[in-house]
Amino acid sequence: MYQLQSVTQTYKRRGNVVTALDNCNIEIPDNDFIAIVGPSGSGKTTLLSILGGMMAPSSGDVSLDGQSLYEMSIDERTKLRGKKIGFVFQSFNLVAWLSACENVQIPLMLSGKSADEQRERALELLDRVGLSGRADHLPSELSQGQQQRVALARTLANDPQVILADEPTGNLDSETRQQVMNYLSEFHNDGRTIVMVTHDADTAAFAKRTIRLVDGVTRELSRAAVAA
Amino acid sequence: MKLRSMIWKELWRRPTPMLTSLLAVTLGVTAMVAIQNITVFSEQKIAGDMESLGANVLVLPPAVTLQDYYSADMHGHTMPEEFVSRLALARMPGVENLAPKLCVASDVDSIPVTVTGILPQSEFQAKAAWQGLGLIINAVGTDRGCCATKANVGSESDDPSSLATTRTIQELGDRDVILGHDLAAQLGAKIGDELHVLGEDFSVLTVLPATGTIDDSRMFAHLHSVQDLSGAGPVVNVIEIMACCEDAAGSLITNLSAELPDTRIITIAQVVETQVAVNGLMSRLSWVFLSILLLVGGASIASVMYANVTERRKEIGTLMALGASRSFVTRMFLGKATLLGLAGGFGGFVFGTIVAVILGPQLLGIDVQPMPQLLFVGMVAATVVAVAASFLPARRAAGLDPCLVFND
Q1: A-chain residues within 8 Å CB-CB of B14?
Q2: Residue in B324, B326, B406 nearest the CB of A110
Q3: What's the whole-number average pLDDT of chain A?
């Protein structure tokens, strides 16, 4: 599914060159569940941005299903994101002035579905995450765990092949964390590819593979190494 | 859910930031609508008054300045009544009627009244007969230089109430009075009643219909009766000349000046030209106010939009991550600006119309009606300004880096 070949990403900050990713080579097959771990500032978010088609690397090639992501135009990548890639964010990133159902409807609206189709699908997804009774509540009226579940429902709206999750349990208590990871495992079992950034070992343990990122350099870890 | 419902929901649930920026735009449209509304109806009233009065010319004593046509005789200066005879006998082209007036103060049952002496048209006809002139032509003018109608002797002004509209009357007895509408109500007088005025008893010949002018509070009597009883002598305050058309009025000025060099000749157009000039100035000023306030409103909207883009950076980034294109984001902000502009234009039209309807009668004594065409102008102007002011903020929003969604 994903192929990163010799991907390097550098930034210039106050005259200094910072290397976020250094000659990264990763292959992520279909239906993989991969956790990316590493200390703060190691390049995890940069890697996720590149995989999400939101940041062109300084050098190297990124392809998704054999198609080079960064040879497409910005608008083509945006369309691709809407169709194939779903996101889960640490701080949920729900739109505060839309209800839970309306938040889930956003990707459906962007892909051109009718209003009735949007609502029907959104309610179906909210039901899947156990929130059909809170469809018309604003995010501020939901607990953090409930907000993340709404975000998970939104992620599934356009039935994406890939889910990119950035610290999906970072703001949650242990019980809710378990609940969210169960949902992600469920999505994985549906046949989707999950790429998850986390610094929590327990969360990383849900993944099939773990890649460690230190100073922009990737290294695949065994399960035992992750647990340690 | 569609883009426009997203825009509406955002505005509805977070209205405060936009309300203040909308205020200046709304005020600009309010000022423009109110002033334009009042000036248009004021111009209509002036045009209507001028049309109903005909191409009137006033002959006045030389020291008089005139602000209001209807109180042309209430300045206290006089000129010899002999000027009237000279004008009548001169039989100038385009003259349809002469109406000399003398205005004196008196009282009826301790109620102060303004008694206006007028000369009935029958007097002119008597003069014409004495001069050996036929009755088929106007007693005072000729049909030379007049635009359309033959001079009309007496048929329209047989009814005493015609004084309200034609400003002349065919017959008026020495001891008859005609009351203005408001004065009759004040005195509680009706047709046939006896009133004691200027030391003599007068009979009420008729009560005039309301005209909305100062004539409503006047009492009209025979000019010679007023002159004799007031002791003013054979003088008048004004001679109104009704020309049969405006073209004739133009040449009349020359003829009148030649005939009466010791008088001041004023056309009705001159009387109202100050008001017309003020109306023109107010109309132009309303556009200036609109432009200034729209500029201020535009700057305010731009500032608030930039702040809105900054405030919603994460939200915009999330939308882009979920598949929103740059054009979607641009349309989101410009759509919001359009909605604000339309609301500001509509609100400005409503407030401006209310202000005009309330102030028109109070300031200028005119009835003001809503002008739907100003709604279109106001809404277009406000919307164009709002959208133009939001263009750069919208482009900035569309150019945001979607990676900022990962920033916590």
Answers
A1: 97
A2: B324
A3: 88
| Dihedrals phi, psi of B55, to nearest 5 degrees | -80, 75
Q: Tell me whether residue A186 is in a domain.
A: yes
Q: What is the pLDDT of residues A93-149, one digit of tens each?
A: 999 989 999 999 999 999 999 999 999 999 999 999 999 899 999 999 999 889 999
Q: Up-side HSE of residue A154: CA atoms within 13 Å toward CB?
A: 34
Using the Cβ of A72 and the Cβ atoms of chain B, whether some distance falls under 8 Å is answered with no
Query: Under a CB-based contact definition with an 8 Å cutoff, are residues A128 and A10 in contact?
Result: no
**Structural domain count of chain A:** 1
Query: Does the beta-carbon distance from B318 to A93 stay under 8 Å?
Result: yes
Residue in A with minimal Cα distance to B328? A110
Quick one: pLDDT at residue B350? 95
Question: Looking at residue A211, which CATH number applies to its domain?
Answer: 3.40.50.300
pTM, two decimals, is 0.69
Question: Does the beta-carbon distance from A52 to B315 stay under 8 Å?
Answer: no
pLDDT band at B25 (very low <50, low <70, confident <90, very high): confident
Tell whether A81 is within 8 A of chain B (Cβ): yes
Is residue A10 in some structural domain? no
Range of the domain at A89: 30-41+81-227
ipTM associated with this complex: 0.90
Contact A95 B406 (CB under 8 A): no
Asked if A55 lies within 8 A of B403 by C-beta distance, the reply is: yes
List chain A residues with CB under 8 Å of B317. Answer: 93
- Asked if pLDDT for residue B244 goes beyond 90, the answer is no
* B contact test, residue of A72, A75, A81 with most B CBs within 10 A: A81
Say if residue A163's pLDDT is above 90: yes
B-contacting residues in A 141-200 (Cβ below 8 Å): 154, 158, 166, 170
Contacts by residues A61-65 (CB-CB < 8 Å, ≥ 24 positions apart): A61/A3, A61/A4, A61/A5, A61/A6, A61/A7, A62/A2, A62/A3, A62/A4, A62/A5, A62/A7, A63/A2, A63/A3, A63/A5, A64/A1, A64/A2, A64/A162, A65/A1
Please give the pLDDT value at position B358: 92
Q: Give me A183's structure tokens.
A: 């949902």
Q: In the prediction, which pLDDT does B170 show? A: 76
The predicted structure's pLDDT at residue B124 = 60
Query: What would the DSSP string read from start to end of B10-65?
Result: HHHHS-HHHHHHHHHHHHHHHHHHHHHHHHHHHHHHHHHHHHHH-EEEEEE-TT--
Query: Is residue A204 assigned to a domain?
Result: yes
Tell me which residue in B13, B319, B325 faces A106 most closely, judged by beta carbons: B319
10 Å Cβ neighbour count for B84? 23
The chain A residue lying nearest B15, using CA atoms, is A97
Interface test with B, best of A50, A93, A148, A195 (most B CBs within 10 A): A93
Task: Note whether residue A14 is domain-resident.
Answer: no
